[in-house]
Specification:
Elements lengths: L12 H18 L7 E3 L8 E10 L9 E8 L1 E10 H8 L8 H20 L9 H4 L5 E2 L7 H14 L6 E5 L1 H8 L2 E2 L2 E2 H9 L3 E3 L6 E5 L5 E5 L4 E7 L3 E14 L5 E5 L1
Parallel strand pairs: 1-11, 5-14, 6-9
Antiparallel strand pairs: 2-3, 4-13, 6-10, 7-8, 10-14, 11-13, 12-13
Helix pairs in contact: 1-3, 5-7
Length: about 270
């Protein structure tokens, strides 16, 4: 029996397929961090921590004249986004309806993807996670709202990375508001989005949860996402009207090279 308890949900295999496909479609474009950093795993639900390769000295030992250290780890954090679907909608889906109301699932997928992005780029102190923008040793660059200045800001960030000996190509995570402004803007008669892609030489992604933007190196080994349970859907409970589900994941994240990113503050 899986810890997700999917086999206990009072729904058909077709309904599970509908739910899984919808979640995949909603999560894929929103999981911006995974498009720009190193992803390891998934290692499974039982994975509890990531080895940091470091130790903390222990003052007291059971017997005198001994030395002791304790190995340091970064504990996995579990994220869960609950949602419910009306049983009448699920039955209609089994009948072949192609407009099943899955708005609650869509909202849950957006919430958990946004939370993951925010933890990676801006940190999550309660979970012991330091984000890329927080950890960066590079001086932050103001982004502002004038899109005509964005190419200069991004070029300055790339120059700072090159000066620090950080190789490209580079990736750019844009928060929702600046991303929309970029989509609506041309630069010298050319779409600004494509102009920025040429500057960084790598992916430019829409990143819900990001404030402003962040330029990161794509050379690898600098930003490490360790997945325990990858994003999965589980069954919680049901009543006569609805079935309650949840999207869940477990992960850790750490920055190995603080100088490999430049934050573009809003």
């Amino acid at each position: 029996m899986s810890h997700l308890l999917r086999e206990h949900a009072p729904i058909t295999e077709a309904s599970w397929g509908l739910i899984d496909n919808e979640a995949r479609e909603r999560l894929t474009p929103a999981l911006a961090a995974r498009k720009l950093i190193d992803f390891a795993g998934p290692h499974g639900w039982k994975r509890s921590a990531t080895n940091l390769g470091r130790t903390t000295p222990l003052v007291d030992t059971p017997v005198d004249a001994l030395q002791a250290v304790q190995r340091r780890v970064l504990a996995m954090v579990e994220l869960r986004a609950p949602f419910s679907i009306a049983r009448s909608e699920l039955r209609d889906g089994d009948r072949g309806a192609d407009d099943v109301d899955l708005a609650a699932l869509d909202a849950a997928a957006h919430r958990i993807a946004t939370a993951e992005n925010r933890a990676v780029f801006h940190g999550w102190p309660a979970a012991g996670i330091t984000g890329i923008a927080q950890a960066s040793s590079q001086e932050a660059i103001g982004l502002g709202q004038d899109c005509t200045l964005y190419p200069g800001h991004v070029a300055k960030a790339v120059e700072a990375l090159l000066h620090a000996g950080i190789e490209g190509p580079y990736g750019l995570a844009l928060g929702p508001e600046p991303y929309t402004r970029v989509l609506e803007t041309e630069h010298g008669g050319y779409p600004l989005l494509e102009h920025l892609r040429k500057i960084i030489g790598g992916p430019l992604v829409w990143a819900p949860g990001v404030e402003g933007a962040v330029v990161v190196s794509q050379r690898g080994g600098d930003f490490l996402f360790d997945s325990g349970e990858d994003l999965s859907i589980g069954y919680d409970r049901h009543d006569v009207d609805a079935v309650a589900f949840y999207i869940v994941e477990s992960f850790t994240f750490r920055v190995a090279t603080p100088e490999a990113a430049v934050a573009l503050s809003p």
